[in-house]
Amino acid sequence: MFYAKDHPFLIPKDTGIPSDEFTFEQMKALSADLSETEKKCPHAKYYYELPAPLPQEHLDAMEAGPIDPSEAFEIWDYGNYMNKIGHCAVENGYCVLPSGIAYSAARVIQEGRFDDMTAYYNQYFAPEECLFYKTWYPGNHYMHFTDGAVEDFGFGRQFIKFTGLVEVEDLRLNYDDIDKNDPACISINGSKAVFHDLTDDSAKDIKGILVFYHRLTENGREMRMRMWNGISVDENGEYVIDPLPADKALKVAKCCMCHLMQEYTNDHYLETKFWYDNH
Q1: Helix (H, G, I), strand (E, B) or coil at 36
Q2: pTM above the 0.85 mark?
Q3: Which of 26, 31, 103, 269 is buried deepest, with most CB atoms within 10 A?
């Protein structure tokens, strides 16, 4: 099971359509621009206000180049690095691990985030068509299915097929120890997925795992993200490493880091702005 205390978290609105109702050719033809219906929605104005400015720590990480793999960790060491008071040596960075897995780390400080703000945003923001998803990351989000999404991560437009939720057991964590190790932690959750490249039919599918670690802070919340590409979990709960080609792994690691930084900085901007525009 995944770990969560009694707080609301972002729930991306989907179209209610399963991905198997679309062919890859139809996915390739999707537009990230607003439809005529979406343009008429009063919330469409937010689409044109983004992307939100990134904090300096994100810009620094983008310019710094890859971190040393010793400053990162494999997914099976998640609890040793994440589920404790304090922070990792590097909270924003990317590299290729000794296993060949592409590693991406990002932190978004959600200052001023409180429960009613997130609950209000989930309930009322952008119900029309794909407006919620497109506005989340204009130009890079195309469509959110019930079981997947089409996004551009910077290494080509991808169909992301969700294959399951991340369980604390997948991270080699003991559920009952999480609060003891870090009382500020309010959720550990994420998704397992397969990335299919819609821009290169010869590209090998990428298996990945994305994990979110949410904390309460004195002034709001903090979201710490870790992503591993080139690994999956089988039906027995065992890790299956399927690394990316060496010439692609580092690019994927950096692109995913940058995408997560902008995506969730946008989310924080939208939730905050939408709340104060209506209260």
Answers
A1: helix
A2: yes
A3: 103
